[in-house]
Amino acid sequence: MRVIVGIERGAPELLAELDRLLPLRRNELVLAHVVDSGARGELERARGWLPRPRPLPPHRVRAIGEAERQAAAATLHEAAEAARALGADPEVVAAEGEPGRVLARLGEERRCSLVVVGARVDRQAESQGPHSVGHTARFVLDHSLSPVLLVRGHASW
Fold first, then answer.
1. Which of 8, 37, 97, 119 allows an S-S link to 102, with CB 3.0 to 4.6 Å?
2. What phi and psi, each to the nearest 5 degrees, are found at residue 3?
3. Tens of pLDDT along 116-155?
4. Shortest CA distance to 114 belongs to which of 83, 151, 88?
5. Sheet architecture: strand order including 28-36
6. Closest to 117 (Cα-Cα) out of 141, 94, 150
7. What is the pLDDT of residue 134?
8. Which CA distances in Å does 106 have to 88, 118, 130, 151?
9. At what angle do helices 11-21 and 58-85 cross, to 10 degrees?
10. Tell me, what DSSP letter sits at residue 93?
11. Could you tell me if 42 and 14 are in contact, meaning their C-beta atoms sit under 8 angstroms apart?
């Protein structure tokens, strides 16, 4: 079975919990991290509220994007090492775009039997109910053509 896992911080804990439920060494594992390209646009919109804002210089926008890509590579490396420690031989995918849309699309394109996302729980959110799921997981749950497994249990997902 081919399984795609949306990776963010806390990936080793997510993968350990997933391995308990679905042994990773028996499945084709795709680890995907999506840099939310909308964040740079949000930054520009927030700056629009400032009196007489100057646009960010192009080199700053490029530097922000490069920092996001470097963080994604580090996150994927950590996740791949954790997966290998659990006996899996993962494929890693780094992408940019709206994370929920990209994960749902990748699951379909790669003909995955299962899409796995972690429930994001922060200190202010409820631990159960619709507010316990972040916007990425919500989009995947609502739009994936493949079955989706929502894994709860670790506060940093």
1. 97
2. -125, 130
3. 998 865 544 556 676 778 889 999 999 999 999 999 865 4
4. 151
5. 91-97, 28-36, 2-6, 114-118, 148-151
6. 150
7. 86
8. 20, 17, 24, 19
9. 40
10. E
11. no
